[in-house]
Amino acid sequence: MRTIVAGLIGSVVLAAGGAASAQQLRPDQQAFREIYEELVETNTALSGSCTEAAAKIGARLKAAGFPDADVHLVIEPSYPKEGSIVAHLKGSDPKAQPILLLGHLDVVEARREDWTRDPYTLIEENGYFYGRGVADMKAMDAVWIDTLIRIKQSGKTPRRTLKMALTCGEETAEAFNGADWLVNNRPELIQAEFGLNEGGGGRLSADGKKQLLGIGVGEKTAQSYLLTVTNPGGHSSRPMPDNAIYRLAEGLLKIRAHIFPVRFTETTKVGFELRARQGDPVGQALAKLMADPTDAAAEQAAAADPNVNAILHTNCVATRLDAGHASNALPQRATAIVNCRIFPGETVEGTRETLVKVVADPQVKIETIPPVRPVATSPPLDPKIIGPMRTLAAKHFPGVPMLPSMLAGATDGRYFGPVKMPIYGVPGVFGDPDGNGVHGLNERLRVSSVYEGRDYLFELVNVYANAK
Ligand SMILES: [Zn+2]
User: Fold this and answer.
1) Could you report how far apart the first and last alpha carbons of the chain are, in Å?
2) Which of 283, 320, 322, 388 shows the greatest Cβ crowding within 10 Å of its Cβ?
């Protein structure tokens, strides 16, 4: 995923800056563009191969002087096309903690017949790059690769070790997930004090003005549950009081009425305080709720804004329904899927237990639908990490406000919850308000956003890499 940050604060922020005009590429930008092009032009959807992209990156890193021992093409034999690449750039201080640059190589499927241009050719047109993955997230993948190569070739060894992990399977819930696999099977390859990932960014106005920079700090975790009611059924001419459809429907209505306890993280409080200052009914309710999280009336008023509701607590909602086998028969089976977005720090099983309690009907069986993914933790707003993001933003994007926000969606960051490694979504690459065709048709990203974001991120990584 790639989230356009902070729908939360709406139009409160003032526009600043503007889109850069087309310019001649510097030699370093030309080298970066080749990496970006190679990534976009390698199909890494389920119909393609992450392994192929990983191998190309590995070859590129070795050609740039990385020793074989520091470039790891990681392939789980049962998933030959879903390989990852991990590379290490050794730091000068063996006692300093490493930093992880994280990204996913895979993309959502794209069909040539549906797109205006070939999705697997990097096309530059009207100030945009077009192609599947140009925004989600091959621009950032290319920035990480290019950053390692530039630092290596500069001959200046950074103080801390930089680790890069570009993995497969982020976009497909049922697929093999390389980040999850590395955390569980090769933790030494990715161990770091903290990681930088997608999930932050920047928001442009429709006419290309820079409005807001976002830092992704924490995320919710999606988990689906299956509700099943079975019944002996019978002929519909002889209805019985006990009916699987009614029983399931009553259970679902109880879930609709249930509101999970209000929770705050350090990050959501920052956004809510800003939202409260707007002084509208939702803002006023948020102010009350921050003073008393058990204020049910305030919760109801605040939750009227879907962007607020999405990050106020765990949410569970019915998303699918299936019942009966004939129009003239009493239903023998009724099932529903309830999709939950679990707040950081809560658990998949705890959420299931809450649903069981809320439905309070032993005939409604509630099961967790695999795969069960770890629930993310909420990283701290650590000044060591947030500070350089802000300082460099003032230099690269003067006057553009920056806001940390918790994602209602999910990234590979959640897999680092169990090992307590904080993962931050970096600011720097600005997206359009229309969502840039991410996961959809004609995915695009402004050319200026890519090069400006790259300059910002290169400096940011260098600051972290040399920090005490
Ligand atoms: Zn993504």
Assistant:
1) 32
2) 283
